[in-house]
Write a structure and sequence with these properties.
By secondary structure, chain A is an alpha/beta fold. Chain A contains eleven helices and 15 strands. Chain A has helices at residues 46-53, 75-80, 97-107, 112-125, 141-153, 171-186, 198-204, 222-229, 241-251, 273-286, 301-309; strands at 4-15, 20-26, 29-31, 35-39, 61-66, 69-70, 82-85, 159-163, 190-195, 207-212, 215-221, 232-238, 260-262, 265-270, 291-297. The relative contact order of chain A is 0.14. Chains A and B meet through helix 2 and helix 3 of A and helix 1 and helix 4 of B. The complex binds adenosine-5'-triphosphate and magnesium ion.
Chain lengths: 330, 258
Amino acid sequence: MPEYAVETEDVVRTFRDGSVRALDGVSLRVPRGQVFGLLGPNGSGKTTMIRILSTIIAPTAGTARVNGFDVVHDADKVRRSIGLAGQFATVDENLTGVENLRMIGRLNHLSTRDALAKARELLDRFDLADAANRIAKTYSGGMRRRLDLAAALVADPPLLFLDEPTTGLDPQSRLGLWNIIEGLVEGGTTVLLTTQYLEEADRLARQLVVLDHGRVIAQGTSSELKSQLGATVLSLNFASAPDAERGLGLVSDLAATPPNVEGTLVEFTVRQGPASAADALRRLDTAGITLAGLALREPSLDDVFLTLTGHRAEDETSDVASPRRRGRRR
Amino acid sequence: MSSRPSLRWAITDVATITRRNILALVRVPISVVFAIVQPVMFVLLFRYVFGGAIRTGSTAYVNFLIPGILVQTTIFGSIGTAIGLAEDLQRGLIERFRALPMARMAVLAGRTVADVARNVLVLVVITAVGFAVGFRPGGGVVPYLEASLLMLFFAFCLSWGFAYVGLAAPNSETAQAMTFPVVFPLTFASSIFVPVTGMPGWLQGFARNQPVAQAADAVRGLMLGQPHGSSAWLTLAWGLGILAVLAPLATARFRRAG
Ligand SMILES: Nc1ncnc2c1ncn2[C@@H]1O[C@H](COP(=O)(O)OP(=O)(O)OP(=O)(O)O)[C@@H](O)[C@H]1O
Ligand SMILES: [Mg+2]
C-alpha cells in the first residue's frame, strides 16, 4: 500500500473549452486511515476534484493517483478500490432498497449471494431495513441519502469519497452519519469528504484543505487552520453607539481581522478566544464601560472565507452552473 | 475478487444492467402500456378507417398491414433506448456507473437488450390484436418466427444508434424529439402502411430501398409466404452495418460523456 491514499500534482480541470477553470493546479496528499476534509464555498471545485479522483472525468492537466493507481491509466484499479457517494443521491428510483444495493454489489463483482447479504447488512446498519422492499421513489430525502451512502460501502472499499454527505440531513441523521464515518475510520478506512460545514470538518477531519476558485488557499490540521484564521469570533454588544465606538478603540488590537461594526454590535475574530475575551472585559471594565452582552462563537464558514479570501462564500464571480447542479446556497 | 476472465464479468455486468432496466419496465408499466396503445390505435385506424381505400391487389389489406405495423412498432420501441439513457444521465446514475469497476459497454448493452425484451412483449400483444381483427398470415410458423427475429434484430441495431442520441441529448424530452426526424420519414415513406406504387416517382426510389422498407418487405414476405427477393438479406446487412458504425460511436460517446 502506498503511503498516501490520494496524491495529486497540479491538477487542472477546465470546462466549456477552457472558459471555466474549475480546478487550477491543485496538489493534495491524503494520508491513510483518517478523515480528510475538503472545504470550500459553492463553485470552488470540490465536486470536480471528487469526480476526477473517482475516474468519472479526467483531469485536463496534472496527475492524480488513488491508492497508488493513476486515475487515467489505471482507472479500473482505482474503481476497484474506492466507494463514492456523490453530492446528489443517485439511487435508482424504480428499484427497491435491496435491489439497488444488490445491483451495486453485482457491478462490484460480488457473487449473487454475497451481494444480497451485503445489501441486507447495510440496510440494517443505515436504518433502512423496514424500507428494504419499498421502491426508492417513495423514500424521503434523508433515506435516499443513506441508501446512496450504503451503496458506496457495498464493496468494503479502503477509500471513500463523500461529497457533502450530510447536506440535507436533519441533525439527528447527521450525528448518526458522523458516528458511522468515525466507525469506518476506526476500522482502517480512509475518508475524503467535502463539506460546507466547519463544524463537521472540525469534528471529523484530522486534516483540511480549503479550496477557492479551484486553488488551495489554506491547509493544515483543523487547529492549525483555526489559529491561522483567528479561531473564534468575539461578539461585543454595547449599551450605546458611543460606547461601542469608545470600546472598539480600546480592544481593536485584539482583533485578528478587521472588526465588523453594526450599531452597538462589534464583532471580530480573535486568536485566543477565552483569553482575549477576558482581556477585553478587563479593559472595558477599567474604562467604566458596561456591556449589554458578550459572546464567543465559532466562526461560520462565511467568517472563514471572509478572512481567507476577502469575499463571502456567496460572491461567485465565475458562476457558470452546470446543467445538473441545483442551487443550494445558504 | 476478479480472477474470472473479464469477458465473463462483462456478460455478468450486461445481465445486471438488463435486469435493472426490465425491473424498471415492470415498476413503471405505463411506458409499456403506451408502447402498446399507440400501435393498437394504428391497427384500428388503418384496418377500419383508411384500409378500405387502400388497394393491395390480391392480398387482403389486413394481411398487408399487420406485418408493417409490427415493423413500425419495434422501430418505435428502439427510441426507448434514447429516452432511457437520457434519463439515467439526467438522474446521475450514469455518473455512479462510471465510478464502478464494471464493463464500460454494459450500461449501453444492458439498455439495448432490455429494449429488445420490451419489443418481444409488444410483438406478442400486437400479433394477438392482429389476429383479433382478421390477420391470417399464410407463411407458416417457422417463417413467422424468422420474421420476428429479423425485426427484433433490426430494432436492436437501431437502438445502438439511438443510444448515441440519448447520450448526446441534454434531457429525455429532447432525446425523444431528436429521434423523430429520423424515424418518421423512414417509417411513413415506406411500404409499411401502403404499397409504394401509389407514391410519386421521386419518392418511390427512396421508399423502396431504404432500410426500414426492406425490413417491412422481408417481414411481410416471410409472414405471408410471398416472394420477398433479397430484402431479408438486405435487412440483415443494413442492421449489421448500422451496428458496426453506431455501436462504437455510442460507446466512444459514453466513455467521453461527463
Ligand atoms: N460540467 C460542467 N460544465 C461546466 N462548468 C462546470 C461543470 N462542472 C463544474 N463546472 C464549474 O466548475 C466550477 C466548480 O464546480 P464544482 O461543482 O466542482 O464546485 P463545488 O465546490 O462542488 O460547489 P458546490 O459547493 O456548489 O457543490 C463551478 O464554477 C462550476 O460551475
Ligand atoms: Mg459540489
